[in-house]
Design goal:
Length: 212
């Protein structure tokens, strides 16, 4: 049974098929498809690359991540599906010390036309539920540039707290970045969980692989 995180109605997350992946990668590689040029540094995979490189690297990364037994660390990439069409990617990663330290990270992006409608919040909440309620994660972390207001807002709405701030340098520019953390008990008891909790099916294989 395929893993599926149903958010509501016709919106769900599931591992992308090769067709989904190629379609998503090609669309994401079009200039401005995910972020306007001035904000391309919000993610690590756009700035400084040609559309062809973006598409190839997106596909290669997701295909390489499919083998979740390759340790250290793992990344589960889920396509955000709206009316059966892939419109973005929501990833959940276990860091190197998994399963001794059960800390996960999340990254996500949506095609611009699907941003700002609450989809990013629900997609992140869905993988938090998978991580905390099924994979027994202890905490989730997120690294976000201060200027990425949408991503900061998603973390804040879902109950993460800011635990650190520092500066990073990318492509010769210096940016302020916050580190946000959400712990298991805080999520399990939160109002955000009650509001956004997805219906998760087909997780048994994943729990067997990663949950112990
Ligand atoms: C980050 C991202 C996944 C969030 O998904 P989304 O669907 O756009 O976010 P939501 O619609 O759930 O909005 C979350 C909150 O951000 C707020 N927000 C969005 N853009 C904002 C902005 N420019 N300034 C301030 N707040 C903003 C929204 O108002 C919303 O809060 P509210 O529900 O209280 O009004 C999406 O915007 C995206 O793909 N961005 C480009 C890629 C990216 O930056 N990824 C993250 C890398 S760390």
């Amino acid at each position: 049974m395929t893993l599926r995180l149903a958010l509501d109605g016709a919106v769900f997350l599931q591992p992308p098929t090769d067709d989904d992946l190629v379609q998503l990668a090609r669309r994401a590689a079009e200039p401005g498809a995910v972020l306007p040029p001035a904000e391309a540094h919000f993610v690590t995979w756009i700035a400084g690359r040609t559309p062809q490189e973006i598409a190839q690297q997106r596909i290669a990364r997701v295909q390489a991540n499919r083998d979740l037994t390759r340790r250290p660390g793992w990344s589960l990439d889920l396509a955000v599906m709206v009316e059966e069409q892939p419109v973005g990617l929501q990833s959940l990663s276990g860091f190197d010390q998994w399963p001794h330290h059960r800390i996960v990270g999340t990254t996500s992006w949506l095609l611009a036309a699907f941003q700002g409608r609450g989809l990013g919040t629900r997609a992140r909440a869905a993988v938090l539920e998978l991580a905390f309620a099924h994979l027994r994660a202890e905490s989730a972390k997120s690294w976000v540039l201060d200027e990425n207001r949408a991503s900061v807002a998603v973390s804040t709405k879902l109950g993460y707290r800011l635990i650190d701030r520092h500066h990073i340098t990318e492509h010769g520019s210096r940016y302020a970045e916050g580190v946000f953390q959400l712990d298991r008990d805080a999520w399990l008891e939160s109002r955000a969980r009650r509001r956004y909790r997805p219906a998760i099916t087909g997780a048994a294989h994943l729990v067997h692989l990663l949950g112990r």
